[in-house]
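Complex 378.
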Amino acid sequence: NAIYGAGLSGILPTVPVDFATLEKRAQAALPPHVLSYVQGGCGDEWTQDQNAAAFRHWGMVPRMMVDCTRRDLSTELFGLKLPSPVFMAPIGVTGIMTQDLHGDLAAAKASALTGVPLCASTLSNDPLEKVAAEQGDTPGFFQLYTPRNKELAESLVRRAEAAGYKAIIVTLDTWVTGWRPRDLNTANFPQLRGAVLMNYFSDPVFRSGLAKPPEQDPVAAIQAWAAVFGKVLTWDDMPWLRGMTKLPLVLKGICHPDDVRRAIDLGADGIYCSNHGGRQANGGIAAIDMLPGVVEAAGSTPVLFDSGIRSGTDVIKAVALGARAVGVGRPYSYGLALGGAEGAASVLRAILAEADLLMAVNGYPTLDAVRAAGAQRT
Ligand code: FNR
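Predicted structure with FNR bound:
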């Protein structure tokens, strides 16, 4: 209502409210290397395209004669009451989305402005403590890329705990970077600019001698990055991961029901169904098509989801298919690129407003009602 009301008075949202126009504007505004970093995916980007396209073969059936004058989008996750199921997925090197290289702080500010939690990436440009401080009262999560050096991993987790993050999300699918032709064809390694200023440079374990922060040399920075991270995780590492923190532990990138069961047996508190937005492996089926199998195997364990969310309608479909929380990736990055913290906040508000309006029209007063209604493959 507020968005429409303002629009009628000629006050339009800071950035376009639909993804296609948003992406087109970002395409025009971003330097080519930054654009290829955010927009690009793995191989010929078939999986990335499928992620978004697959939402079109899931549909919902409306219910009538239900009082939906008030909608409750709130959800519970790890004992937190969140105002909506939407969160900001972890995006590394977000610094480069804004001119000042502090895109991570702008993302955190958007989180504070909207109440939408941010999952801060290990590969943020700003230190994780500063990112947490910008999130204000909105709870945040910390995403861990596991360094080869266990002490560094433990130090990052301890810092995240001390900074007040509410969950540790370990990404499993990125011990090596996927085949990304856009980067190779243009020799436009976007990370070059961001790599000289990374969150982990500030870590005491890193500084105490793992490597010299290559602040002046971007190529060395990228090489150091590969040397520092890239630990291959196996199920044998689960006791170590589990023992590292008392915070809720979530595994990101789990899509197979057998892996879901194994993760839960070994102590995971949450399962994050995602194919990294199609950036890591090509040829995989759309993430939303894997969600029902993951939800079924997870039972009462909460399932987080991302990959392909482009609108509020997509959020509601993911909830209908059983997601407890739904991550948005590229859309908020484009918001950052076009309007900093306000731009990202505007993107998130549009997604929330569309979700809310859909619930109103479809007769779903709560997310439980959305789940009860479900979604059907068309
Ligand atoms: C990512 N993603 C990601 N994931 C993660 O666990 N750690 C990270 O540092 C990053 N970095 C990153 C950078 C960029 C530019 C993008 C676009 C994505 C993956 C991200 O968390 C999420 O899984 C996808 O972005 C979801 O897909 P959509 O919403 O972008 O389609």
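The longest helix spans residues 330-362.
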